[in-house]
Amino acid sequence: MKFSKLTISIAAIAAIFTVGCSTAAKTVSEESLGLRKTDLYSESNTTGDKTQYSKTVAGTSKKIERAFENAPPMVPHDTEGMLPITIDNNQCKTCHVDSAPYDKTIPEVPKSHFTDYRPMTTLANDGRIEKEGKAVDNTSDLKTTSKSLTTLAGSRFNCSQCHAPQSEGNNVPQNVFKAEFRGTGLNTKSNLVDNINEGVK
Ligand code: HEC
Ligand code: HEC
């Protein structure tokens, strides 16, 4: 049998077409796309995981292991009625700063919270910026200072800015992050005040 060039090219086109069609027939459902596994065009049946904070009252909860070294620990207990923190009402401070030294069941804030790390910044009469009494050309000129205070540092007053309650949820995708702690016990306590300048000096 003799094939003309034309017959061959028609056969080739047909072959490509068949392959193309069989690929197109393999469809991916809307529900299998994305992480939520529901119809991408409808929001009505798609709801996020419910936020479920601990209902265990302070004093009976179990501390949560730190996510990494010197991480601000998560709040393990119920915070109902404690938030928002205001100038006149900071219950976190009442327990963790004022009562903790007398009640050993309450974890006391670490030394870092009694330390002022902000360089004293002032504007001189000639318009120049001074940090710790020295004129600086660039306000971001790195200057590390640390002054021990006898009272809670103002920058630590708003506890919930850094300490969040933990919500029980079915996270997708799962978090498989594993922290490496450089010393024993650093997953339950902190020593930031001792090593805050690591990598800076
Ligand atoms: C009635 C006293 C009380 C109040 C008010 C309180 N806590 Fe606590 N907190 C505790 C106790 C006690 C623990 C230790 C765990 C336990 O026994 O429940 C704790 C644990 C913690 C921890 C974990 C510490 C660690 O090393 O893992 C953090 C963080 C914390 N609280 C932050 C807060 C914040 C932020 C507030 C305010 C929203 C607050 N607490 C209000 C008593 C209190
Ligand atoms: C600017 C962020 C920030 C604020 C604001 C803050 N913390 Fe912390 N906190 C941290 C970090 C970071 C750590 C862990 C590292 C360290 O400082 O030692 C920590 C540690 C703690 C610990 C654990 C102490 C230990 O010995 O392990 C307690 C308890 C705590 N904070 C309570 C509080 C309370 C109560 C407030 C409000 C009065 C507060 N923090 C405000 C960042 C913050």
Kindly list the characteristics that best describe this protein:
single chain; 201 residues; alpha+beta; 3-stranded antiparallel β-sheet; two-stranded antiparallel ribbon; 3 helices; binds heme C
Structure in words:
The protein is of the alpha+beta class and 201 residues long. Helices cover 17% and strands 6% of the residues. The protein is built from three helices and five strands. It has a three-stranded antiparallel β-sheet, with no helix packed on it. A hairpin with a 2-residue loop joins strand 3 and strand 4. It is extended and about 75 Å long. 3% of the residues are buried. One heme C binds next to helix 2. The site of one heme C has 24 residues, from helix 2.
Sheet of most strands: 3 strands, antiparallel
Per DSSP, the total helix count is 3
Helix and strand content put the structural class at alpha+beta
Strand content: 5-15%
**Order of strands, widest sheet:** 2-3-4
How far the N terminus sits from the C terminus, by CA atoms, comes to 85 Å
The ligands bound in this entry are: heme C
Number of strands: 5
| Helical content (DSSP H or I, runs of 4+) | 10-25%
Rg: 30 Å
Uncertain spans: none
Mean pLDDT: 85
What's the order of the H and E elements? HHEEEEEH
Mass-distribution shape: extended
